[in-house]
């Protein structure tokens, strides 16, 4: 027992010593993305990595570890050495994993250090280019005429598009055949090809497809219309008659539990500076994302926000009876 206490004390001293030199110049900071490369969270993380590199003065690399409702990559970070060199960029999945993943190997609320919200990403309801409807009213009529035959794609169980699809079906009281893909890219490819009918996905994925007229866009999921040039003419689902329908996908930054406070303070300061980086803001705005500027950039408020989101999404997911594992 005494030997164990000694080893623990030595480990604590080692981490404390590391804090003064963080980040180590010969060791990159790794941002683990619990989704496939090329997806919306991956794009946000890659934009953020460059902005963080400027602030931390060391290389920041991306590691994709997709699967099981984002729990595989998240577990990797929860188990990582708490030295600030392995961080997690995750979206709303942090709030949905407790309900989506059975036997989750960590606790979202206690096994991570919260570092701040990065952005909020609106979502768009889009359809195959051959869709006969040209506005939301016509789409509503088409849905009514084709009940039982509609295919609604998503990027996989637990993905943002899956959650939006669940919420949309509940809101319009219409069941559709959900078609899960291994990532957003194949889902959009099949939507463009007409293999699926509808998709509700983040503007980080859909803006260029909408602007290029490769898909038909019908509405956004925000309380107000967006100002992004390619999306500004789209009505909100709420104004189109879908009551109380709002969903934005937020992204946050996390470290393993036990990361020294001094390191956490340095990372949070770097994140705050990154969120003010003009290049980062420009990249996010081009994707329709809104960079966080509110109190959620503070660790305590970030955690409080996620706890509220867990309370919001748990009953919706349980009612749907879906699991990511």
UniProtKB/TrEMBL annotation:
The keyword Signal applies. Keywords: Signal. InterPro entries: BUG, Bug_dom1. It comes from the Bacteria. Pfam families: TctC. Residues 1-19 form the signal peptide. Belongs to the UPF0065 (bug) family. This is Tripartite tricarboxylate transporter substrate-binding protein.
